[in-house]
Amino acid sequence: MSTVIRARGLGKKYRQRWALQDCELELPAGRVIGLVGPNGAGKSTLLNLAAGLLAPSSGSIEVCGGPPAADVAQLARVGFVAQDTPTYGRLSVADHLTLGRRLNPGWDDAVARERIDRLGLDPKQRAGTLSGGQRAQLALTMALAKRPELLILDEPVASLDPLARREFMQLLMEAVAEQELSVVLSSHLVSDVERACDYLVVLVDSRVQVAGDLDELIATHHRLVGARRDPATLPGSQQVISASHTDRQTTLLVRTQEPILDPSWSVDGINLEDLVLAYMDKSAPVVRRPRLEVQR
């Protein structure tokens, strides 16, 4: 299977408000995909639709080759950790593993118990008495022990301190390497995406602004600085993502597969944060931004 999530005209409406609308997306399998965007872009709605927790109001979504949560087999293909890393406060750690074993036909008890031992969690301790980082790790353990094809993580470390966040991400990446999962990780922390992901999607106002291999995106975006000029005069191969001007100077962020040979420009590379912010900044005067096709 080459595509793990495919959305066509996908939308979700709550009364008169669209939380997600006209979303087009095609994500490759076998990758760790970072999903970023501003608050209200529709990231959580998209992931809840992919997990089968919501039904679309328009369009369609296909996950691991079928409709989300269509049957028991389809449910088993997807592991999901929501933003609040839900656990049952009155149940013990051991109770959670028992629940997971009874609800999931593909449950791997050895994986669950090995992770609990490694984390140093007391099986008798109630989840409600665990720290935020421990609850997040327990929720991740529950998702991984399902042995899913796709792991969906909706800002799972948003409320954790830096040390707990680093430990969570480290253990996540080890599990990904061991189980060869496809992962979609939503995060507003660019450092987490940079550390963990090899594929990037930027979602703004329900629409994919850019998607592709992270290294390739970084390599094909450049910052140009030079004397003030009209960006429309650039070659057609240079797609202008953002532009800013002073009285004498123009600064552009462009995307191109070709070398920039114009000696009037000072050309610099960009980092991931520069890339993400450029596509998220709707106030930037974009001169030419044709529709981007998702890279496969």
TrEMBL record:
Q: Where is the ABC transporter domain?
A: 5-230
Q: Which InterPro entries does UniProt cross-reference here?
A: AAA+_ATPase, ABC_transporter-like_ATP-bd, ABC_Transporter_VariousFunc, P-loop_NTPase
Q: Does the keyword Transport apply?
A: yes
Please name the GO terms that the record assigns under molecular function.
Answer: ATP binding; ATP hydrolysis activity
Keywords (alphabetical) are:
ATP-binding, Nucleotide-binding, Transport
* A Pfam match: ABC_tran
**Does the keyword Metal-binding belong to this entry?**
no
Write down the SMART domains for this protein, in alphabetical order: AAA
Q: What is this protein called?
A: ABC transporter ATP-binding protein
- The species this protein belongs to is Streptomyces mesophilus
